[in-house]
Write a structure and sequence with these properties.
- This is DMT family transporter.
- Pfam families: EamA.
- It is found in: Cell membrane.
- This protein has one domain.
- The protein contains 14 helices and no strands.
- The protein has 293 residues and is mostly helical.
- Helix 2 packs across helix 10 and helix 5 packs parallel to helix 8.
Length: 293
């Protein structure tokens, strides 16, 4: 019989693939929907779906838990606004995925800046390697960062802050309830921003609706449900190591789906960023539980 640890590993591997597929679904949906409107509808409906499934948890939350879940949802919303704006402007989804993955490296750095949590030496080494990787990507366009890359970098910083806030303030909130509230808050923020700055097309084709539904059901609701389930079966460090594969899957899917190609310099920059993710998780790799544990 398959060990619990191996089951968790396979589920997290599937989560990273679903997250990468979300990049493709979103890219296709943006051909017919405004970016902020799309992310608003996607996250609000996903939040209602997840929150509905976990309604027994949601209705028991005290006011303090609602405030904390809502506040972390606002931070997550700002990150998602930056991410979708980057996605709407980029012609290199693979590169964008690696830049967004820098949030993993930045989590302990922001934990140190805001909460005085002392980072390890590997954190600073990972940050140095990640900076070199980002520098290599910026040199591709002559000492400048594309607007899309800037949005992805901003999303990475804000997501790292979101992770710290989640870890610090939301540990006592049931995960399904927390996920549903946060997704819903993201959706409301994005729809508000869309209403203030975007105009909607008179009609959306069934193809566009299909990509929207795939984003809601597969890349958001199913992904977060499986992620919560997998994280309940293994340690957070275990899950974090496997989550570093998301940009790799995204780059591969972009090559197969969109026929994207990276230059040698872009490949070098993305490789450095991936190396920084591994360095950041190195001490957990060394202490990985045995199979079947």
């Amino acid at each position: 019989m398959m060990g619990k640890s191996l089951q968790a590993d396979l589920l997290m591997l599937l989560v990273t693939l679903l997250a990468a597929m979300g990049w493709m679904f979103s890219h296709e949906a943006l051909s017919e929907m405004p970016p902020l409107g799309f992310i608003g509808v996607r996250f609000l409906l996903a939040g209602l779906l997840v929150g509905g499934l976990g309604w027994h948890q949601v209705r028991r939350l005290p006011p303090r838990a609602w405030r904390r879940a809502g506040a972390t949802g606002v931070v997550m919303g700002l990150a998602m606004l930056c991410w979708i704006l980057g996605l709407s402007k980029t012609d290199q989804l693979g590169v964008g995925a690696f830049i967004s993955s820098l949030s993993v490296v930045l989590v302990p750095v922001l934990g140190w800046l805001f909460f005085r949590q002392k980072p390890t030496a590997s954190t600073w080494l990972a940050l140095l390697v990640a900076t070199l990787g980002l520098g290599s990507l910026s040199l591709e366009s002559g000492l400048s960062i594309a607007a899309s890359d800037g949005y992805f970098a901003a999303a990475a910083v804000i997501l790292a802050l979101h992770f710290n806030l989640n870890s610090r303030y939301a540990l006592s909130i049931p995960p399904v309830a927390l996920t549903g509230i946060q997704l819903g808050v993201v959706g409301l923020i994005a729809l508000l921003a869309s209403g203030l700055s975007e105009s909607w097309s008179a009609s959306i084709s069934w193809r566009g609706i299909g990509w929207l539904l795939a984003s809601i059901l597969i890349a958001t609701s199913l992904r977060f449900f499986l992620q919560i389930k997998a994280q309940g079966m293994a340690s957070a460090s275990h899950a974090a190591i496997i989550m570093t594969l998301e940009p790799v899957w995204t780059a591969l899917l972009a090559m197969l789906w969109l026929q994207e190609q990276m230059s040698l310099q872009q490949l070098f920059g993305c490789s450095l960023i991936f190396l920084s993710l591994l360095i950041n998780r190195w001490r957990w790799l060394l202490h990985r539980p045995k199979p079947g544990a």
